[in-house]
Fold this protein.
Amino acid sequence: MKKNLKVLFLAVFVAVASCSFTTKEFNDTDKDKVLIDLITYVLQKGHYSPADINDEFSTEVYNDFIKGLDPLKRYFLASDIEEFSKYKTEIDDQIKSKDLTFFNLVYNRLQERMEDVKKIYPEVLNTPFDYTQDESINVDYDKIDYVSSKKELKERWRQQLKFSTISSYYDNVEANKRKLENKDKNPSEASEKENKKQTSSTPKTDEELEAEARETSRTSLDEYFDFTNDLERKDYFAIFLTTIVEEFDPHTNYFAPPDKDRFDLRMSGRLEGIGARLQKKNDYIKVIEVISGGPVWRGDHLEVGDLITKVKQEDEDEAVSIVGMRVDDAVKLIKGPKGTKVTLTVKRVDGAIEEETITRDVVELEETYAKSSIIEKENNTYGLINLPQFYFNMEDYKERNAASDVKKEIERLKKEGMEGLVLDLRGNGGGSLRTAVDIAGLFIEEGPVVQVASNGKKEVLEDEDDAIVWDGPLVILVNELSASASEILAAAMQDYERAIILGSKQTYGKGTVQNVLDLNQWIRKSDMGDMGALKITTQKFYRVNGGSTQLEGVKSDVVMPDQYSYFDVGERDYDNPLPYDKIDSADYKKWDGYIDYEETISKSKSRMEKNAQLQLIDEDAKWIKARRDESVVPLNFDKYVADIEKRKEETKKFEEIDKYDNKLDYKSLPYEIEMMKQDTTLREKRKRWHKNLAKDIYVEEAINVLKDLKINNIKAGKMADIKN
């Protein structure tokens, strides 16, 4: 695996380096032109299946860029689109000649139209909406036309604002009704909490409620435009570059510098900083979450709602005001290497101004990492490991990664007497290919796990460690959102007949491999600043049986419907996906540790066909899909309420889904119980997780499957010897 990536990286490096992106080659110092030239060259040389940059490509870029900037058709006029369309088949030529005419035209026009809208929405919201009028709005924006004048633009915004405000108005009316009901109650009949509410607020008129709803919409838009005011030309150019590169395939992306940092964080689940999530609120940087276990949490330095106004580094005399600063720029000042100190000037929720000196540290995002639970049923003990993603540290793979954590959890569960293991990959969008291979190796003695193809060559990635960490019954849970590395692991375990795959009809269908290339290494000019990075599709992976997971995904051994069953969420629903294909099978030997593999699958299918809860879930999924396909929404209040009441009535029968109890007992592992004595946040998170697991029919069936699976004592080896 490592060798394969090095060869690929070197090939791309040599190809791009030969293009000589130097001052001599580029007399024009425009960073955007250098970027567009460099990126398209890297794509042509390094992409697994490079697209032809031609008129068809140009048309796709045109359509996607315009739609990406104005998806609701609430900025551009029909005349703007007519002007833009002259370039529909010329963008490919402009890319090749580093001509930014199309981008500049669209960007500048968008800024003009946004300024127009900033005057429109306050004016519209100054006038009460007439909810007795019989009108509706079509929210299928692909099927509506652009407006032809500013007068029509104002009318579109009036409709859109009425649509966004009617839900707030409905909520206000319902809350007001409850106040009136409480007011009519005998004080002895009303709860103490309700009585306190009653004395603190009185019912309001419909006019007051409608005015409050409009004010809610105004505040939301004020905050939205406050955010867009912080965006610079380079931010929109990054969108343009992303639009270009995504025409190669859905997973090839351009990362502007802040986006690259966020990607690294997602992959590693860790950062160096103070351990707080921040958001811009008006001109202030606001604390919206304190991360459990981080420096802020340990020192009780900040609370949710605190506003940070100034930042001072330990080697500087003066603090820098961050009021009005872009949130990305403010975060850069606040973050820093482990062990360094930063002093923040903080405005507390109560208005007090204080300074807090915080020593930065490595902050780990607990929700990123594997977690496990002991499950008990009828005197049997099982284990469940939930893996949200295949994480790893990009700088040091050995420091912490998904494979090493899963191994630790398995060993801990074995000490508690685990008799079968559920590995939950539902919602896991992937991550590191290497961790998927390493996790597969925990369950098989040795052999191929995945085949990787690039530039007509094939490499087989194998588990080379003959040690087996878990040789007992194994079930893997998947759904439509299980993608990439999740599919590699599930496919390998299915091909080996090592695990039974239980879940959606098929998984996501992402059978491609991406590498992230730092674009700065090819630019020898130092005055251009950070060029960002390119995530580029360089390989396709294949199952050990030769089939691709691209588009097809992994088909579950036992299919169980869920809320995503009828949604368009897979790779096949994206533009420009790479095709499905097959290659020769790798040389592998199926696991022979079970004596009733097929029989267990058959039993599970039989149970699922008769299961009333699953039938209800399937019916609910169909209902949700039908509602989502409805595109016309009434703006008459009586009809709006009638529609809501109808839906409430229709959904009553689905309330039983959330009341389901699988009658399983869940416990945290001893090491976590010790941690919870100090960490109340962790205790609450695990309590909530176990509560959700208790309603989970998929986990219940996984346990039933584990109970049915019988180990072949002769073949299974060590575990059987212990039992005998």
